[in-house]
């Protein structure tokens, strides 16, 4: 009680309100105490606190915007909001895709090199599509192939417009800020870079317009989306100034020259719509152009160098016997001799520009000779192709290989086939996620007799390889018809002009050599241009088109126009130029000589190889595609590496499909065997499987196969010869090749070993040299066999074209139920031997051990209509059928007329379930079938008798016959032969 009171008191004490007392006066010696109220305290604190900082002002970013429309889509240039410190920065937008382009120049007023060090860096970061990179560091790595290619599309039309002698370092950086996945940002980036240069203080003779043109169902589409490009047979990227063409890049599906000209003219008229908005934007927000030092040689120095070098250079160029390196050595000697004379005169200004001046003299000499005399350096005519050499199957061990030479240019192309899982993964913002066809171009230093270090991805190598890849992609078979991943390697062995077009020719032959069913050959040739410009107007006054240009003609000429295609049309184009534009009419004129040269090369390639080779067992890989459910693939995903190590095959898994690629057929068979054993396949009757014996019973063995499933191998299916004890033949763990022959009444899969073995020929057959009887795997159930007398019954067998009769399989359902050995044991114990006498008429014959078998006498026979002679011996022979003996090896003695009567004495306890080989009984004809009889025994059980070939006799339903049990079929039904 006292504890309860104490608890109540404590509770009341906690509830009492506490009084807040004023603070005690502060006792200070010699001072009076002061009591401050709460309001006074707050006022004092506010007075002591520092003054609050002023609120930040609102910054206004002055931006300028210009909009225009092409192909029904609105495009906008905007500047002033982002990247304000750059020399020039522009954000271009089309729908929800935004691209930023910036330009910056080196601060030094002195050029650092004797050429234009222009760098274009195009970047596609994953944030533009709302994705975190999947790399280990979750950062974008080195530039991808697509980024390098987009950088080339920007670089090629911009570079020719810089002033002559401007050698200051310039860098253009392009970032994709956002992407809706509909528009390819590359064309937008090129236009934005042009606008950024117009806004900057860098001297540049722009602007340019860039546009993409597609074609669907014969109709041209301006700036098509990515989905529309998938349906288009043309992907044309066209860049131009107001009146001249600067760059062309084409991927097509055999478009004709006439249609391509129409597409280019449309592209030019639409691309110039991008020019005026840039000019207006530069007037509103552009910087004044800065005075940069231009590195130009003086006229006096140039004339001195020209006087010293022109005559010997002309002598070298007029001698067509010079090879590439011999000509180069002769020109280098001329340069060194001029240098020595200038050093004697101490002419520093001329020495500074010696290499550029000599190169200019070379250009003028060779161009004048081509235009005025129509003669080329190597003595060819203007439209003549160099000598060709074609060779396929260069290295037979490879999947495909070819060697192609045009003049001194030589390329070795090889083809490697792989599984669909070997396709290249693409992490680009637009386009497909993978690429199944790859062409990798390699330009080693020895191909031009130089020493250099090998680095990573080279912009030139990626560009040339992609051009050849586009050219060959048009003739590849569809992915559904040819699911391989294809990699072509183009190794340049010697270079003297247009190695990319040589890669197209060599790659086409290598694809055919690999057995890839390409529709026809693709060839490529490079066309050049040498022109004279009117100094007063700046227009081209005279020009010559050169077919199949040399490396020197490429360097000293005005353009490198690479055109690849088939006889039907063009598949790829790449145009690079050196002057500030070429009229479109001249470019269109260049298509015809390129077509003629291409057909000449195609004729020579067809002479070497014109159709795809048949797959060679020694070199061509094998590819198999298997389909499984997702659950069944879990085991394979875990053991895939182990299967590859054990077999040497490549196994790839994707979307429920397993693809196996192997070098040879034995490797393929081994890999498929391991995959099917691990995963399992849908079971088919008549198909052979490999399995492992898991348990042995008296009546047979249970075999594990097909990914853990079980089947029953009955003792009667072990061999064509009788087997007394199954343990004498099989052991647990033994691996067997078995054929599925059906399913028994218990639901077990029935397997057969003897069905995979050749059937032995009997002595009678050997003597007559007759053909072996056709092998049959069991009979169908007796109840399911159609009657011969039924008018509407369909035949139970089919015929091949050669007339061979084929019996239907015992079990035709492909998917079956698997019963385990334990289930079968439990069912055997439940039924017992006594119940087996009442089994349905179509049930399999139960197995009995030899010591359990009862001695069976022959059933009581009624008088049969078959006549039996008592004065002659009657030899009972088994028919020439493929009867299946199951047990017992005792021989059946010959019967004479005296003991035939004893065979007709039937025992009282006759039971068909205990019948064994050699038993002679009397049976009635129950049904007459197309290939035999259905016989009914005295206890109601049924058996069968198969007609011999051309040995059918007349029988009647109900007729009694004396028959002998010669075998049992796959379902345990006894098969009888007639006793004469």
Give a written overview of the molecule.
It is built from 21 helices and 36 strands. The relative contact order is 0.06. An 8-stranded antiparallel β-sheet has the order 8-7-9-10-21-20-18-19, with helices on both faces. The chain is an alpha+beta fold and 980 residues long. The protein is elongated and about 125 Å long.
Compile the SSE list and pairings.
Elements: H1 2-15, H2 38-48, E1 64-70, E2 73-79, E3 88-94, E4 97-105, E5 118-123, H3 145-158, E6 170-178, H4 185-199, E7 209-216, E8 219-222, H5 226-231, E9 234-240, E10 245-255, H6 257-271, H7 275-285, H8 299-318, H9 324-344, H10 348-352, H11 354-373, E11 388-392, E12 400-406, E13 409-418, E14 424-425, E15 434-435, E16 437-442, H12 459-473, E17 485-494, H13 499-513, E18 523-533, E19 540-547, H14 551-556, E20 559-565, E21 570-577, H15 584-589, H16 591-608, E22 622-627, H17 633-647, E23 650-654, E24 657-662, H18 665-679, E25 688-696, E26 700-705, E27 709-714, E28 735-743, E29 749-752, H19 763-768, E30 798-799, E31 805-806, H20 821-835, H21 897-903, E32 920-928, E33 932-936, E34 942-946, E35 960-968, E36 974-978
Parallel strand pairs: 5-6, 16-17, 27-29, 34-36
Antiparallel strand pairs: 1-2, 2-3, 3-4, 4-6, 7-8, 7-9, 9-10, 10-21, 11-12, 12-13, 13-17, 14-15, 18-19, 18-20, 20-21, 22-24, 23-24, 25-26, 25-28, 26-27, 28-29, 30-31, 32-33, 32-35, 33-34, 35-36
Keywords: Nucleotidyltransferase, RNA-binding, Transferase
Family: Belongs to the polyribonucleotide nucleotidyltransferase family.
Domain S1 motif: 686-754
């Amino acid at each position: 009680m006292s504890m309860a009171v104490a608890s109540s008191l404590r509770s009341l004490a906690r509830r009492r309100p506490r009084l807040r007392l004023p603070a005690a006066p502060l006792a200070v010696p010699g001072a009076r105490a002061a009591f401050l109220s709460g309001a006074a305290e707050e006022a004092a604190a506010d007075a002591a606190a520092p003054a609050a900082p002023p609120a930040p002002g609102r910054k206004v970013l002055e931006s300028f915007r210009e909009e225009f429309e092409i192909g029904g889509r609105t495009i906008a240039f905007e500047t002033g909001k982002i990247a304000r410190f750059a020399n020039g920065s522009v954000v271009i937008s089309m729908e929800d895709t935004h691209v930023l382009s910036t330009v910056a120049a080196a601060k030094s007023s002195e050029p650092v090199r004797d050429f234009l060090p222009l760098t274009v860096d195009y970047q596609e970061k994953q944030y533009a599509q709302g994705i975190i990179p999947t790399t280990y560091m979750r950062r974008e790595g080195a530039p991808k192939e697509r980024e390098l290619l987009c950088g080339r599309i920007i670089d090629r039309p911009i570079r020719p417009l810089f002033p002559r002698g401007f050698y200051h370092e310039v860098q253009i950086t392009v970032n994709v800020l956002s992407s809706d996945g509909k528009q390819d940002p590359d064309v937008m980036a090129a236009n934005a870079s042009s606008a950024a240069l117009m806004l900057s203080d860098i001297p540049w003779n722009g602007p340019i317009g860039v546009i993409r043109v597609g074609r669907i169902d014969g109709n041209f589409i301006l700036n098509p989306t990515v989905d529309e490009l998938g349906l288009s047979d043309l992907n044309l990227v066209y860049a131009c100034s107001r009146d001249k063409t600067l760059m062309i890049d084409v991927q097509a599906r055999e478009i004709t020259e006439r249609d391509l000209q129409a597409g280019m003219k449309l592209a030019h008229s639409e691309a110039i719509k991008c020019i005026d908005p840039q000019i207006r934007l530069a007037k509103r927000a552009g910087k004044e152009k800065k005075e940069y030092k231009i590195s130009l040689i003086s006229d006096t120095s140039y004339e001195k160098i020209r006087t010293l070098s022109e005559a010997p250079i002309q002598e070298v160029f007029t001698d067509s016997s010079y090879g590439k390196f011999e000509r180069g050595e002769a020109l280098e000697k001329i340069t060194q001799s001029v240098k020595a004379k200038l050093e004697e005169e101490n002419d520093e200004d001329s020495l500074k520009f010696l290499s550029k001046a000599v190169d200019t003299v070379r250009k003028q000499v060779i161009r004048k000779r081509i235009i005025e005399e129509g003669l080329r350096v190597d003595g060819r005519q203007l439209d003549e192709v160099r000598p060709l050499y074609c060779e396929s199957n260069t290295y037979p061990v490879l999947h495909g290989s070819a060697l192609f030479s045009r003049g001194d240019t030589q390329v070795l192309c090889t083809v490697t086939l792989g599984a669909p899982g070997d396709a290249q993964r693409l992490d680009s913002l637009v386009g497909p996620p993978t690429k199944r066809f790859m062409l990798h171009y390699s330009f080693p230093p020895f191909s031009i007799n130089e020493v250099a270090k090998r680095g990573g991805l080279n912009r030139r190598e990626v560009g040339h390889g992609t051009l050849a890849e586009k050219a060959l992609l048009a003739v590849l078979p569809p992915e559904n018809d040819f699911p391989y991943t294809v990699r072509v390697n183009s190794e340049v062995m010697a270079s003297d002009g247009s190695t990319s077009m040589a890669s197209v020719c060599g790659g086409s032959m290598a694809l055919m050599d690999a057995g890839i069913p390409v529709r026809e050959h693709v060839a490529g040739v490079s066309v050049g241009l040498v022109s004279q410009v009117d100094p007063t107007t700046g227009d081209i006054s005279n020009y010559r088109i050169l077919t199949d240009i040399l490396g020197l003609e490429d360097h000293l000429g005005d353009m490198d126009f690479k055109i690849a295609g088939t006889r039907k049309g063009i598949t790829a184009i790449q145009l690079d130029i050196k002057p500030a534009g070429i009229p479109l009419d001249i470019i269109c004129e260049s298509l015809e000589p390129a077509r003629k040269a291409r057909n000449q090369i195609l004729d020579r390639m067809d002479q070497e190889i014109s159709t795809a080779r048949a797959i060679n067992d020694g070199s061509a890989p094998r590819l198999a595609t298997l389909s499984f459910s997702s659950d069944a693939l879990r085991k394979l995903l875990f053991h895939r590496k182990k299967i590859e190590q054990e077999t040497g095959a490549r196994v790839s898994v994707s979307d429920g499909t397993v693809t196996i690629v192997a070098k040879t057929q034995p490797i393929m068979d081994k890999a498929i065997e391991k995959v099917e054993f691990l995963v399992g396949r849908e079971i088919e009757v008549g198909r052979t499987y490999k399995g492992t014996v898991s348990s042995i019973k008296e009546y047979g063995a249970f075999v594990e196969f097909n990914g853990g499933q079980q089947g029953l191998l009955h003792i009667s299916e072990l061999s064509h010869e009788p087997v007394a004890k199954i343990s004498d033949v099989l052991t647990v763990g033994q691996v067997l090749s078995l054929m599925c022959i059906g399913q028994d009444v218990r639901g077990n899969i029935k397997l057969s070993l003897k069905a995979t073995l050749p059937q032995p020929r009997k002595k009678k057959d050997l003597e007559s040299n007759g053909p072996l009887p056709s092998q049959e795997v069991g009979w169908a159930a007796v109840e399911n066999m159609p009657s011969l007398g039924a008018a509407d019954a369909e035949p139970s067998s089919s015929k091949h074209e050669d007339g061979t009769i084929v019996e239907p399989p015992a079990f035709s359902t492909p998917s079956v139920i698997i019963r385990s050995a334990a289930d079968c044991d439990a069912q055997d114990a439940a039924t017992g031997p006594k119940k087996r006498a009442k089994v349905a008429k179509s049930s399999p014959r139960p197995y009995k051990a030899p010591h359990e078998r009862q001695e069976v006498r022959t059933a009581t026979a009624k008088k049969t209509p078959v006549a039996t002679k008592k004065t002659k011996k009657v030899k009972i022979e088994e028919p020439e059928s493929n009867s299946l003996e199951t047990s017992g090896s005792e021989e059946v003695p010959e019967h004479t007329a005296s003991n035939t009567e004893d065979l007709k004495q039937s025992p009282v306890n006759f039971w068909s379930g205990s019948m064994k080989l050699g038993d002679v009984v009397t049976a009635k004809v129950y049904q007459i079938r197309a290939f035999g009889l259905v016989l009914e025994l005295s206890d109601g059980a049924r058996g069968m008798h198969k007609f011999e070939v051309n040995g059918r006799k007349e029988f009647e339903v109900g007729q009694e016959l004396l028959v002998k049990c010669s075998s049992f079929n796959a379902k345990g039904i006894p098969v009888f032969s007639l006793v004469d």
